[in-house]
């Protein structure tokens, strides 16, 4: 169920992992970059030390590790071994040169980087769910799919087979999903929706809200589903999700509304009723408060 709801979130907010560049180095190297938004830095083979604003000390990245940088301003990474000063490397969007290396694992550091392409709703959700820098470890059985995703992505980037551009987009999306799956199992998550999806005590109540978002759920009914008192349920939910249960439900409804307005031709009045609002006016007021514009303006802007 956790994975199903995570997939639902990906669909609602249009989260995509986009590969932007990479490099192969066989000696000492260093790279610097100014960044913004959500970025990922993946070590396909070899090792690297990564630093960024918000870190007290550099991260030691091993083979298969991924660092996700959440709205940071800069990063510096270095690696390799041997004599002499490190060579300054700049990630290249053309991966054809990777094919010239004789085996990625034979003493080479292979690094792939990219950004997470998000709509405003997705940006708000993921930036809240992740720390400033998330270290996702590729070691261990739980991250086997992550390691496989990295190597399949690199294979598509370097081999240039027919349809590779489409395959790279799909593998980038799957890589991001595997990063979040692995991170959920490895770290103490900050309060937010990602942590909420993993909370076994709250899952029965969360399942009800996701299954019937238009129903007028009461706190007592949700608490009973979780086999908790109203007070305990409300306190635990706020501590895990960062917001009260009914606030979460309202925001979830708004995400559903944005998808419907983006993809469907449903009338605003019917959408309001289906999501549990007493009137179109009440829905429009809530939508504008959450999204920043009216439902009709939102629809017209996305479809123009």
TrEMBL record:
Taxonomically, the superkingdom here is Bacteria
Q: Keyword Nucleotide-binding, does the record have it?
A: no
Q: Cite the HTH araC/xylS-type domain residue spans from the record.
A: 203-301
**Which PROSITE patterns is this protein grouped with?**
HTH_ARAC_FAMILY_1 (PS00041), HTH_ARAC_FAMILY_2 (PS01124)
InterPro entries, alphabetized: AraC_lig, AraC_XylS_family_regulators, Homeodomain-like_sf, HTH_AraC, HTH_AraC-typ_CS
Key words, A-Z:
DNA-binding, Transcription, Transcription regulation
GO MF entries:
DNA-binding transcription factor activity; sequence-specific DNA binding
- Please tell me whether the keyword Ribonucleoprotein is annotated for this protein: no
The protein here is known as AraC family transcriptional regulator
């Amino acid at each position: 169920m956790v994975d199903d709801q995570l997939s639902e979130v990906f669909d609602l907010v249009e989260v995509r992992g986009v590969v932007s560049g990479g490099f192969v180095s066989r000696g000492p190297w260093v790279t610097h970059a100014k960044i913004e938004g959500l970025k990922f830095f993946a070590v396909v083979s070899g090792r690297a030390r990564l630093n960024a604003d918000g870190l007290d000390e550099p991260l030691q990245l091993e083979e298969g590790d991924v660092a996700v940088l959440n709205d940071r301003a800069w990063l510096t990474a270095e690696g390799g071994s041997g004599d002499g000063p490190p060579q300054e490397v700049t990630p290249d969007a053309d991966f054809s040169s990777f094919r010239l290396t004789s085996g990625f694992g034979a003493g080479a550091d292979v690094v792939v980087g990219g950004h997470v392409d998000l709509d405003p709703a997705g940006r708000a959700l993921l930036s809240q769910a992740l720390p400033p820098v998330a270290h996702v470890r590729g070691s261990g059985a739980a991250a086997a799919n992550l390691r496989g995703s990295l190597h399949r992505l690199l294979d598509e980037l370097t081999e240039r087979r027919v349809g590779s551009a489409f395959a790279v987009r799909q593998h980038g999306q799957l890589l991001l999903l595997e990063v979040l799956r692995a991170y959920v199992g490895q770290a103490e998550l900050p309060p937010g929706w990602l942590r909420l999806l993993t909370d076994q005590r709250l899952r029965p109540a969360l399942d009800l809200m996701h299954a019937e978002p238009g129903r007028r759920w009461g706190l007592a009914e949700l608490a009973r589903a979780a086999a908790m008192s109203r007070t305990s349920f409300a306190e635990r939910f706020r501590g895990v999700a960062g917001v009260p249960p009914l606030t979460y439900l309202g925001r979830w409804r708004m995400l559903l509304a944005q998808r419907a307005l983006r993809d469907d031709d449903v009338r605003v009045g019917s959408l309001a009723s289906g999501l549990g609002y007493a009137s179109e006016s009440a829905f429009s007021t809530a939508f504008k408060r959450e999204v920043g514009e009216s439902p009709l303006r939102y629809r017209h802007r996305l479809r123009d």
